Structure formats: structure tokens, C-alpha cells
Amino acid sequence: MKANCWTGRNSVEVQDVPDPSILNSRDATVKITSTAICGSDLHLLDGYVPTMQKGDVMGHEFMGEVVEVGPGVDGDRLRVGDRVVVPFPIACGGCASCRAELYSCCENTNPNAGISEKFFGHPTAGIYGYSHLTGGFAGGQAEYARAVFADVNALKIESDLTDEQVLFLSDILPTGYMGADMCDIQEGDVVAVWGAGPVGQFAMDSARVLGADKVIAIDKETYRLDMAAAQGYITINFEDVDVRSALLDLTGGRGPDKCIDAVGMEATHGATHVHLYDRAKQAVRAETDRPHALRQAILSCRSGGVVSVIGVYGGLVDKFPAGAWMNRSLTLRTGQCHVQKYMKPLLGMIEQGKIDPTRVITHRLPLTDAPRGYELFKNKQDRCEKVVLKP
Ligand code: NAD
Ligand code: ZN
Ligand code: ZN
């Protein structure tokens, strides 16, 4: 089959790779109908995740049709012919983390738990197409993928919603929603969101759905800020103004009640980002002239407010303002999204028309054009916001 593979720093290529097969009794094989490129894929593309190997199949946002199931798959939950969206973290459904709905921290699905532990202190769940640190599972930017613990994870789509309406239930819609959910939004709250990429846009939509009074978008890409403005959100271009002062001006000098970081490592391009597990055993350190989104969020948030971090971090970040966090009673919440917790309620909201996930799609390309999709998305060319690939 054809699959989009990582071939080195800043390079992906569509290659012929072996078809996936059922390896464990609760696996299913999915014939992919739609898949997408995520901001998290850019962290892999950048080459700052040292556990990528040449030839690894990329992609953790995918959906399609079940074409084969293992003998252990519960037939009441999943059968051949079902149309499914596959969440990016692989959950077993039975461990203590899964029972607490912390699916991305599943304790049973990462065969490389030892590597994960070296990075993060404890192992994290397996993730598709996300390097060997999260299990080395082949990703979904391909014609077929192996879905693991398929009957626990895959969400069946039984209505006639289009692929584009449900595809993002695999990741970015639940992620944006979790970013807002972790804010515990109260009446009258002002919520500021760093990053107007697809994840940030969904965090903004979710903040509004959850009752935020005002939503503020911060980015430097004017076309992305325009997309946010079109939804009625206030925008701040961090290249034009001092973000903290602008936020204080908008909030009577107090700062936003809730701040969401939907940027992650991109803000530093790995520059102030230090890997615990660095192959050369040397910390990667460099200066950056770009403002650091997380630091800005902590320093801007009102005292007693919540800083919710859904942007992805891999190692250590310099200059974390622990003093502001501690002295001003801030709450910090974060996580790789526990997608399985949010998929069904969000499917309901899509059906009711409360959230329209298709609004972020700007590019639809055949899978064979994946490298061009990465280029457009990474370099923000052609007003690119979100690329959907069709195998
Ligand atoms: P994206 O790259 O399209 O968007 C990031 C945006 O942040 C860009 O528009 C960029 O211009 C902006 N930005 C950069 N520096 C900034 C700064 N200092 N202040 C404000 N904005 C800044 O990516 P995306 O797909 O929207 O993903 C965003 C983040 O969410 C990534 O880190 C991604 O890895 C992460 N993510 C996390 C999860 C999760 O489960 N927690 C899931 C999906 C994606
Ligand atoms: Zn993603
Ligand atoms: Zn589990």
C-alpha cells in the first residue's frame, strides 16, 4: 500500500510499504477514507523528536471502513463494514488510567514504555504515527492502518455525516474541547487562546460553547486571526503589540480568567526546548527571539486563574515562571487529549450543529500529495489552516 513516511529531518515521502495485518486478537484493519496533517506532525517533521526512524508511517488523525477484525474483537461493538473514526491515543480500557478516563496515559498500550519513561518519568499510551517513544505504531496517512484494541477505541459513525464533519473527532476537536474543558469556564469569563491553528480554533469554539463571555485569539498569522475574527473572537497579533499589555487593556487590568496554550513547542522551534533523552547526550540549547506562548500565558493570566496547556511539549522548557504560578495561585492543567472521553458528546454536538469542524479545512489533497500538504501547513502558505488527505 501507499503511505506517507518520515524520511529524515524536514522530509516526508509517499512510499510503498507492506499492508498492515492483524497482530493481536483485538486489532482491526481500517481502510482509510480520510486522514489529516496535525500540528503535532510538524514536531516530528522538524526532527526534534529523536525517536523517529526513517520509514515510519506518519499520521494519527484518520477514519475509514473496518475491513478485517481479529478473533477477540467484540462483535457487538465492532464488525467488518463499520465506518469508524480512530482516536489517536491507544487505550486498553481496563487499566487504572483508562478507568479514570485518562486514556492518553493508558498503562498497557505502549510497547516502548521504557523509552516513554525516560522522557516523562512514567510511561504514556501508545499513539499512532508518533515515533517510537509512543510505541512505534504505524500511522494513518496511508491506505490502511491497524487499529489496536479496536473495539474499545474506534467510534462507529452510524449517521450520514460526511468524513469531513467527523474526521477531527480523532484528535483536534476533542483536544480543543479539552483545552476549554480544563478551564472550568464560569459565567463572564474571558478566555485567551495562544495559537489560531486548527487546535486553537477549536479551543475557541469550545470555550464559547462552554459559556465564555469573551474569547481572544493570539497569533501572528493574519489569515488565521481573520478566521477567528470571522467567528466573533477578539484578535491580537503578537508581532504588532505587546500581548500582555493588550490582554490587560481588554480585561480592566486584571488579565484573562482562563488562558489556553494551543501552540506548544512550535513557539520555540525546539530552540529553548531541551530533550531529556538526547542521542548525543547533549542538551540542545539556543536563543530564540520569538515570544514563548506558555510563559506569556502564565504571566498574563489573572491571579487565581487557570492556564490550560494543550500545545505539545516534549522535554524541558527554559524559564518556566514558577514564581508567577505559585505566588498568584494559578492552576495549571494539561495533557495529551483523552480523546475517547470526548468523542461521543462531541459527535452529538456536531449532529446538533453546535460545532462545525469543517470550518478549519482549507486544503483537500490526494494522499500522494502529502509532502506538499506538509509544506503548505508548515510554512503557512496559501492561507493553509488544515489539510485533509484522501487515500
Ligand atoms: P499549528 O502549527 O497549525 O498552529 C500553531 C499556531 O501557533 C500557528 O498559527 C502559529 O503561528 C502560532 N504561534 C506560534 N508561536 C506563537 C506564540 N508565541 N503566540 C501565539 N501563537 C503562536 O498547529 P495545530 O495543529 O493547531 O496544533 C497546535 C498545538 O497543539 C501543537 O503543539 C500540537 O502538537 C498540539 N496538539 C496537542 C494535542 C493534545 O492532545 N494535547 C493534540 C493535537 C495537537
Ligand atoms: Zn494531532
Ligand atoms: Zn489502559
From TrEMBL:
Gene3D superfamilies reported in the protein's UniProt record: Medium-chain alcohol dehydrogenases, catalytic domain, NAD(P)-binding Rossmann-like Domain
One family name in Pfam for this protein: ADH_N
Protein's UniProt keywords contain Phosphoprotein: no
Every Alcohol dehydrogenase-like N-terminal domain range: 26-147
PROSITE patterns (alphabetical): ADH_ZINC
Signal sequence bounds: none
SUPFAM superfamilies per record: GroES-like, NAD(P)-binding Rossmann-fold domains
Cofactor(s) needed for function: Zn(2+)
Keywords, sorted A to Z: Metal-binding, Oxidoreductase, Zinc
Superkingdom field: Bacteria
Location of the Alcohol dehydrogenase-like C-terminal domain: 198-268
UniProt xrefs under InterPro entries: ADH-like_C, ADH-like_N, ADH_Zn_CS, GroES-like_sf, NAD(P)-bd_dom_sf
Protein family (similarity comment): Belongs to the zinc-containing alcohol dehydrogenase family.
Protein name as catalogued: Zinc-dependent alcohol dehydrogenase
